[in-house]
Amino acid sequence: MRIRTAPGTFSWLPYIRTLDPLGDRHEIHRLTAGFEFPFDYQRALEFALFRTYCVPSVSAVLAESGEFAGRPQKRYDDTAILMAEMVEHGVDSERGHESVRNINRMHGMYDIANDDMLYVLSTFIYDPIDWIDRYGWRRLDPVERLAAYHYYVEIGRHMAVRDIPADFESFARFKLEYERDRFRYADTNNAIGRYTRDLYCAWFPAPLRPLVARGVYAMLDQRMSDAFGFPAGSPRLRALIETALHARSAAVRFLPRRRVSRTTRDPRNRTYPGYPDGYRPRDLGVERAHGRARRLRGVVPAAAGASGTIADAPAPPGPAS
Prior knowledge:
By secondary structure, the chain is mainly alpha-helical. The chain has 15 helices and no strands.
């Protein structure tokens, strides 16, 4: 998608404020997530997904799938990329349609309660807002907040999520009440939480992993720690992490305005090297078993839609997300 010319040196915010949070919801959200706050959105959504695992009915579905036990990195990458594809290209684009069909196909393999779907959807709206208000280089503008609500409501409707609250404040209340009523300990919470913690630790050299695990505990609130059965985090370590995040934001505040979106170009992607060049959202997902991912490593995929691309290869069966 081509971004229109905008005034200003350091931020897209002056331009964002000229847009309509409903009619221009995708453009606003793409600018916010891909240009203004790519680091913060990625970190916030990692912890937002972690937060959903505090719900026994959610963690039970994930445990049943076997994805977290068998290949947590792939499950993480599939989720991150499919959501990023919709942010980058829009839900109504060809790649956006492929992404939402892929997500619906995977969800359709399980009996997932509508309230659980609503809750997961709400975390994509409000957890990044909370994170950026705490650690971002500026607070989100009301236009950006409303655009995030309208953008994810649109995604929810494409996913056949019912009874989405009618406004920003109502959905925020639903999220708070759901967490108050549904967060509680379960063995499946603990298992999925441990797999996710270990995944985060695996991104760092072995000597640092115990410290990373302690950092994860430190960033969880007490309700999350109790729901996972994790030890309480260190307040001192949390304060140190928050100081580092604030220092980063103070430096980012004076950087030039970003000109290239960071939504789908994550250099740390471990499952699909070179993504998105030559890949399509339909090529992702849990049915794409390990052999296919290994075959793609170290090669430059053919152009999407050409004969012999990865989209043409048969997909062996595999467990669902």
